[in-house]
Amino acid sequence: MSSDPGSYPPDLLSNYSASGFASSTRSLPFGAKPALLVIDVCNAYLTPGSPLYAPDRFHEALVSTDNLISHCRGHGIPVIFTRVVYPNPESGGNWYKYKGSGVLPCFDAGNELGDYPTGDQICRPQNGEIVIEKQFSSAFFGTSLASQLVAMKIDTLIICGYSTSGCVRATTTDGMQYGFNPYVVKEACGDRHAYPHDANLFDIQAKFGEVVSMDEVTKLMRR
Prior knowledge:
The protein has a six-stranded parallel sheet with strand order 3-2-1-4-5-6, with helices on both faces. The protein is globular, with a radius of gyration of 17 Å. The protein has a single domain (33-222), classed as Isochorismatase-like (Rossmann fold). The two termini are 32 Å apart. 36% of the residues lie in helices and 17% in strands. Strand 5 (181-190), helix 6 and strand 6 form a beta-alpha-beta unit. The protein is of the alpha/beta class and 223 residues long. The protein contains seven helices and six strands, in the order H-E-H-E-H-E-H-E-H-E-H-E-H.
């Protein structure tokens, strides 16, 4: 499976179309007040030996993420960063205790794996940029993100980061449910394997947002 709609099996496309889901059709407007949401881009995904490390996949997405951040800053589009931080194991609830006990300690307070990419001066907050600290998948759950976006009069979210099937998808779904128009930039998202990456981009496009290329989103921003 590939995130290019032209490569999807015809029966998959016809199934979704017959069910009322248009898996390759743009329908959400790109509004006048977008913001870039950079999801959990940190050392844990980029450092050999980390349980979340996957060679190439996250590094490739980081290059596109850096370009996207630079483009948004150059156009005066707000850049918002999210990061996972656990003051203690209990703050992660059952997700930390049962499902993520092998990987989520990467994000314990003070662990350098949870910090922004070492040596990368672009993918880290500048003075005045918002940082949302979270304990669960969605950047909206248990945080002030929604109220801050409303206060900023943001109508569209450009979304990138890690991982496509986890925190990117959860944040995109909640973004739609809170009334924002999510635009996920496919080259600037990373996952451990191509299959969950592509499958989740397909489903996001069909149900929860718009999946766009770097070229598409930069044209929308210039407009």
